[in-house]
């Protein structure tokens, strides 16, 4: 048997297109060929189950091997195999999928779709790394003869009699010069680990050394010896393919360590399992995020029938859940011919919505089941919840029932609870309820204490997302405004009708303002004389709430870049009712007035962490001299 011919294609120069455009990364040739071998193996198993194949299945392990001297990589299976006619049909006619005929033949068989693979373009990824490809195959059909197909990367092929004696297929790649990097054990091992780690058929790649017990020595201690065993690449039944009722916490934690060996244990997880209106399985883990946005370290991995596709899942998973880790597996997510890029599709949006709902339901369940445990985990999960409420309206609707606010005393409140707590005392003369917050409890301690003296409560808003979450709260909570605790003096943060009057005369106020403007000598600081509680500090430096918030949002990429580039401007509030101001006015000389004003101003800067460098050094020297 010998035949030569031309591969039937619908586009000229198909191979350059495959090499340059259809595949984003040449290493996926191995994924495609191993996946095809697994598909063929699953099909023969299915035929045996249906009684369509009565022979012995035998060992169905798919084997990957390479020969550095001959410059070949071989993928062998004991699957369906192909006759010469089938090779011509499935391999030569690129546009035809062998799965179509198989589906039609066994369309009434239960779960047949789950084992359908596609012949065709996936196979041709072999030419990304090989100058010549051989197929040696023997069909499972009784009386079949082995067939050999050879192609050198042009549109010409040759079919001749093969030499395979067992059912199945060998794909032999003769590696081209540019791709000899793949003739390396560790390179191939890495690719197989990446793409084939959870394929449903056993994959073997050579052997590896293992230590086994070898009796005991004279002292009764165990002895060990090294033996060569098959190097099995994959776990054929990963936990996402199992029922949650069959799994324990240790199984989920063990799988997490397998995926992310260097990570801390996750907080909790969600097992996804849906078969209508789309098929989706997987496990998503909530990691400890350490209050930052580490999107790159450990990504969610996307699989299709246990074949790794990508860890770029932004179309499938809502953006705020990109912080999660784990696995999603769905045959219903549409991929282009290289299986590497997601395509726009209605199912993708449905899956996105489903995952959002499952996460919201899980968080709600945890909150209701044990609020104390939920509060203990809030520092880790708060970032997810707040980010989700900002970015997803549907999640925000559910999230309002389990989002928590934490104050500087370490107490937690739901939104309704906190509203009730502060609505009376922290409502200003315009009937606006004011929520005070701190972004750095230690740095803003003086301002927090001032607020606490007036029985005001202060929230902790110190995560990277909080500047945006504050905007969200103000948009959702009626007649509510949030102000940073150091945005103004306590009396001005929540203005009441019974505010303190300024005891200085107009002339005295003008004089004090002139003294401080001369002492400060910086146009970035605007001086105002105010009537405040005599027990408050004589001088307070603050930044306007709006300007500070815009700068905070600009710092976290909130689209406020214009504000981020503006110079810092501060308000200097002089407490006209403080005894220090009276002392400044009564100072014997202008020089003494300026020195006292400068000292008071520097103390205010110090309280805000704004006194640095040369100014701090001079302040220390001046303080020593004044003692």
From TrEMBL:
<dbReference type="InterPro" id="IPR036890">
    <property type="entry name" value="HATPase_C_sf"/>
</dbReference>
<keyword id="KW-0067">ATP-binding</keyword>
<dbReference type="InterPro" id="IPR020568">
    <property type="entry name" value="Ribosomal_Su5_D2-typ_SF"/>
</dbReference>
<dbReference type="InterPro" id="IPR020575">
    <property type="entry name" value="Hsp90_N"/>
</dbReference>
<dbReference type="Pfam" id="PF00183">
    <property type="entry name" value="HSP90"/>
</dbReference>
<dbReference type="Pfam" id="PF13589">
    <property type="entry name" value="HATPase_c_3"/>
</dbReference>
<dbReference type="InterPro" id="IPR001404">
    <property type="entry name" value="Hsp90_fam"/>
</dbReference>
<protein>
    <submittedName>
        <fullName>Molecular chaperone HtpG</fullName>
    </submittedName>
</protein>
<keyword id="KW-0547">Nucleotide-binding</keyword>
<keyword id="KW-0143">Chaperone</keyword>
<comment type="similarity">
    <text>Belongs to the heat shock protein 90 family.</text>
</comment>
<dbReference type="InterPro" id="IPR037196">
    <property type="entry name" value="HSP90_C"/>
</dbReference>
